[in-house]
Specification:
single chain, alpha+beta, elongated, 4 strands
Length: 294
Amino acid sequence: MLLYEQIRKNKVKTVFIVTGFVLFVLLVGAAISYVNYGDAVPGLIFTPIFSLFYVGIVIMSSTNIVMKMNRAQEVTSVEEHRFLWHTVENMAMVARVPMPRIFIINDPSPNAFATGLKPEKAAVAVTTGLLDRLSREEVEGVIAHEVAHIKNYDVRLSTVTLALVSVIAIMSDIGSRMLFFRSIGGRRDQNQNPIFLIIGLVLLVLAPLIAMLINMAISRNREFLADASGAELTRNPDALASALEKIANVETPVEQASSASAPLYFSDPLKKKVSGLFSTHPDPVERISRLRQM
């Protein structure tokens, strides 16, 4: 009951966070419009149109972009890496999702991630360090975790939220430039409420930071969900906990990982050792503790 209750709670929490994120994007658009023109309505109309367009472009090319960004090489046949191929195939079969494409990143730091728009177009990438340093059961646990991301549509969620962070950054930059040029011209709507104007200005400045914090919160929550779902697939939470323990104790970062792709990884690939609101992943100790209790 603990396992299924944890999965249910994480799903509910994710829905609330994502809903809040979407509303925040609309709020930022309204604030930019009000600060510059004294009317929030144009922002509420333009923001969803621009967001859907931008997110659509990012989603359609996300897998190839992420794999190139991390210099991952695709495994195209079982002969290239029989154990990895069969492990991914077995976990996909248990999860009842199409077998994802398989990639290997030549890096000694053990880690992995999944990406893709939907299960039919998903991909899993693992580092050579993961295959070299972990036992077969531990590798299976990590693969189950990544396949769980695919099954739960986390890969789509992470792509959308990352795109929305970019949308807010672009809108905030455009809004700031518009405000700068309007202030030079001495133009200001006299009907603007001073309180709403101050709130809009503060939101305009802090929007990118707040968006990043929301994205990190979603990332942390989806890791807990994938841990629970991965343990459900293997029926061996101890193997996943052991893998996480080994990976967390490695000090060497994944060289090809960037801050943009870091939230996708099984464990923080940058090894920043930050916790709380500014962390892309939950505390490994808490993750391990939850797995040990299953």
